[in-house]
Amino acid sequence: MLNVVTVNTNPYEGQKPGTSGLRKKVKVFLQENYTENFIQSILDANKDSIVGSTLVVGGDGRYLVKEVVHKIIKICGANGVAKLLIGQNGILSTPAVSCIIRKYKTLGGIVLTASHNPGGINNDFGIKFNCSNGGPAPDNTTNEIYSLTTHIKQYKIVPDLVCAVDQIGMQTFTVEDRQFVVEVIDPVQDYVDYMKEIFDFPKIKTLIQGSEQRPPFKMLIDCMSGVTGPYVKRIFISELGAPEGSVRRATPLEDFGGAHPDPNLTYAADLVTAVKNGDYDFGAAFDGDGDRNMIIGRDAFFVSPSDSLAVLAEHAQCVPYFARRGVRGLARSMPTAAAVDRVAAKHGKEMFEVPTGWKYFGNLMDAGRLSLCGEESFGTGSDHVREKDGVWAALAWLSVLATSGLSVQGTLEAHWAKYGRNYFTRYDYEECASDPCNEMMQALEKKITAPGFVGSSFSSGNKTYVVKLADNFSYMDPIDKSVAMKQGLRIIFEDGSRIVLRLSGTGSSGATVRLYIDSYEATEVRGDAQQMLRPLIEVALDISQLRQYTGRAAPTVIT
Ligand code: VG1
Ligand code: CO
């Protein structure tokens, strides 16, 4: 029999979950009781249902995941949790956690990841709680967890509980008078089974391997040394018959090989170069925890995430899951370009615009009003789970291409010809000093909400923009009527062009400023987005005084 020990502790400041969980430097989590406090607070926030419950636990394989898995086992055992489902060696992609929570109807799950942030002892770690719907906890739950961290006095632990997380199977422990079960599961199996239900694997296999009508479709998939490696190898190589060389960086590494596991044109430049110089029809990259995706075509033709969502919405019937169930509403985060809105209007679907962060899609999905959604930050997904899902997005794209026989570029060109084109760019200024960024946001809010701002005009290049609406975006959830305030400063012009500015909620130190610019051209003007948006970018930098406040002449990342 194992004993429960109650340990006295003191609160830490700043354990406030951001856009997606608590993210801090590894060294912050290594402070005495820091991690224990947060885990106990998660369990306390669920105190009415924790005893006898089942939880899912897993992470993206980064530095500290294994150690924290062991802490979670010991703390859950002490708090009366009946069972944990844990990915072998603590490995589970974020969408796989969501899938497993839903499949086994558990109380929720604890996801160990800092997603697209770098890993290793000098970099980031993160802890996130997902609820029984499989999605990231909504604001009222994360606020409750945060509030508990501010006055925590004790946590409970079973110090002598030793569990082998490398061995698949059940391990049963007797903790005082209770049974506590840890089931270590194959991280990939449930997810792969589910993907086979959602997609037509034989059809995608024919695309990849070629047929009498078509040569083999060549692809290169970059797992960026994140968690998707085992999922991608199993799905694309074992199941869909792609050649071994179709996958790169497919072994999860604790520090992602020193790279930034963020699938965009800057951090996945290697993939872009390889696809540009090689004979590939398709390229995809995923982030550290497997919920983001970047899609490129032959010659590294780039699909913007806003367009990717619109294309998948337009061709949803190519995915058997949607063909069977139909498509309910569509949604995007506020800064995401409005390409999908046009598809919704054309197909007569309900359309939602929510704040940044996947947690805001969950209620709409649970209410049966939302099927497909996305964010400009390389997030695409559907109501098959309650997280964005990188591998799902790649399979959805392959389903579209297998049906149409078009190339990636051909698909986009046909889409723009039908709907017109949204030009979009995002400038990230990473890890700036916090105070000047906060001052900049305050000053800008004051400026754009002052009388007279609406109706004023700005000129740059040969363009003049007249302000139609300017505010700090707030959102009322149509289902539970909860309100999220201050979700980003927006300036919308008469012609529909937009400037959006917000501070990141996923960084682990300093402030990251995100500037989003988009505009719409009904008749397709073939041009590079950077060139098309140049005048508006200048207007944005001028109104916000961003260069002066941040001291940065140029952004860290341009998408
Ligand atoms: C960023 C993105 C947001 C995304 C979030 C989590 O948040 O902008 O769209 O949902 O990351 O993605 P922020 O607050 O830094 O802008 V993941 O893949 O890091 O969980
Ligand atoms: Co992620």
Automatic annotation (TrEMBL):
GO molecular function terms listed in the Swiss-Prot or TrEMBL record: magnesium ion binding; phosphoglucomutase activity
Gene Ontology cellular-component terms listed: cytosol
Catalytic activity, EC: 5.4.2.2
PROSITE patterns: PGM_PMM
Chain ranges of the Alpha-D-phosphohexomutase alpha/beta/alpha domain: 15-155, 190-296, 323-419
Cofactors (names): Mg(2+)
Alphabetic keyword roster: Carbohydrate metabolism, Glucose metabolism, Isomerase, Magnesium, Metal-binding, Phosphoprotein
Entry protein name: phosphoglucomutase (alpha-D-glucose-1,6-bisphosphate-dependent)
Gene source species: Parnassius mnemosyne
